[in-house]
Design goal:
Structural class: mainly alpha
Radius of gyration: 19 Å
Number of helices: 6
Distance between the termini: 23 Å
Number of strands: 0
Largest sheet: none
Number of domains: 1
Helix content: over 70%
Length: about 140
């Protein structure tokens, strides 16, 4: 299964999480109220931005050859203090319940786990390995 989880896995996860958050938005406002739904939505957006910066930071820092230290330092300065400070203010604002924000923060993890489980259940990695083995035999 490791061969089929390429770098585009993160991009596909971000796209799916964004779609799930948008789908949840309107029914959530109707059934749960505006502030709990916005808390889940803002928590999910925060999680997506966190993953974008984490992915960019890891790709910039762990590359063969020359590492651009200025880019790594800039990404680290944006990700750690600013992003986590904004997450702290989301928690301390008083409008949102911490449990709803936590549900939004962990939305991206849930999407990742469900994508991997679905990938394993439907056997998509077996077809990829079979094609790779056949192309190596030629």
């Amino acid at each position: 299964m490791k061969e089929s989880l390429r770098l585009d896995f993160i991009d596909r996860t971000l796209r799916t999480t964004g779609i799930v958050l948008l789908i949840i938005l309107l029914p959530g406002i109707y059934y749960f109220g505006i502030f709990p739904t916005l808390a889940v939505f803002f928590g999910g957006v925060w999680g997506m931005v966190n993953l974008i910066f984490l992915s960019a930071l890891v790709r910039a820092a762990l590359r063969p050859g020359h590492v651009d230290r200025v880019k790594v330092a800039g990404l680290a300065l944006v990700k750690f203090p600013l992003l986590y400070l904004s997450g702290y203010f989301l928690l301390r604002a008083g409008y949102f319940e911490p449990l709803h924000l936590l549900a939004g923060f962990s939305m991206i993890l849930a999407v990742m786990v469900l994508k991997v489980v679905a990938h394993a259940l439907f056997g998509l990695d077996k077809e990829h390995r079979k094609n790779k083995r056949l192309s190596g035999a030629i």
